[in-house]
Amino acid sequence: IEQEALAAIAAAADLAALDAVRVAELGKKGRVSALMGALGKMSPDERKAQGPQLNALKTRVDDAIRLRKDVLENAALEARLVTERVDLTLPPAAGPGEGALHPVMQVFEEIAAIFGDMGFTVAEGPDIEDDWHNFTALNFPIGHPARETHDTFFMKALEGDTPKVLRTHTSPVQVRTMMEEKPPIRILVPGRVYRNDWDATHTPMFHQVEGLVIEKGIHMGHLKGCLIDFVKAFFEVDNVESRFRPHFFPFTEPSAEMDVKYSRNGDAIEIGAGDRWMEILGCGMVHPNVLRNCGIDPAVHQGFAFGMGVDRLAMLKYGMPDLRPYFEADPQWSRHYGFSP
Ligand code: PHE
Fold first, then answer.
1. Any atom of ligand 1 within 6 Å of the Cβ of 284
2. Confidence of residue 96 (pLDDT cuts 50, 70, 90)
3. DSSP H stretches of helix in the chain
4. For 266-298, how does the pLDDT look when each residue is reduced to its tens digit (9 = 90+)?
5. Ligand 1, closest atom to CA 304?
6. Is any ligand 1 atom within 6 A of the Cβ of residue 282?
């Protein structure tokens, strides 16, 4: 039995074969186990004579199995080290885990870079505003119909507090900045804004960029030049036909909406020339009441302001027809329009 067992152990080519030998010899119904079992039925003398021999046999088989197991395990490890070697020179695989900035952020950065060249710095303010910063300081008198046009989300008032709103535009940051800083002021304000509206081109949360310039001697010509330069740089065109159409905002006087000419080529929209006008932003000269509300003397300092929808500018520049996928976090969509790898 011992010879056979040792031969079988030596011949076992892998761990599974070795375990089969172990079961056949040392398992409950194994041959060595059967011999050990027979000991119990022997007379005390016979047992004394055979016991040590059988025990020694069992130990030798056991040891042989252990040794072979070590050898086979080492061999298996060697084999894995060879096949699983990592090639450090391979380039990393581009997988679904690779991310990118959201298109709105990328477009905001494009806008900030253009205005950055004109000396604007970035300023920010809170999404949850009070009525005074969002409306009153901006010359929306209490009860004025202009307030109704903003589809405002009102927050439940805390006890002893005036009710807060989700800011309906980035213009309250004009107020915050003028209250804190002395002119000259040249800021660009990115931010989320909120209005109760929902369809293919309106989402209840969207993004604006606001601009504010306060300096001595600022006039409408500065406003127009600045915005025309911006549109050319943003849409990457040498010339853009534009017009400033009179409009009304409580916080600017005069106020205007800027329209640009465009043409439509199938689904694609070309900004700059064409036979149709498109409105792209609101702007105007800062109203003297707003300057006064913020502690600036309108006889000394003047300024202009503008506000535009970033989501909409991104739709126009990159030909994205629907606003809703902006907020569905689909990498496929972002890749389709070239915003992520
Ligand atoms: N706040 C205005 C809006 O949301 C845009 C605007 C900003 C207009 C600054 C004029 C000056 O519609």
1. yes
2. low
3. 2-11, 15-26, 31-40, 44-83, 103-117, 131-134, 172-180, 220-235, 288-293, 310-318, 331-336
4. 777 889 999 999 999 999 999 999 999 999 999
5. 11
6. yes
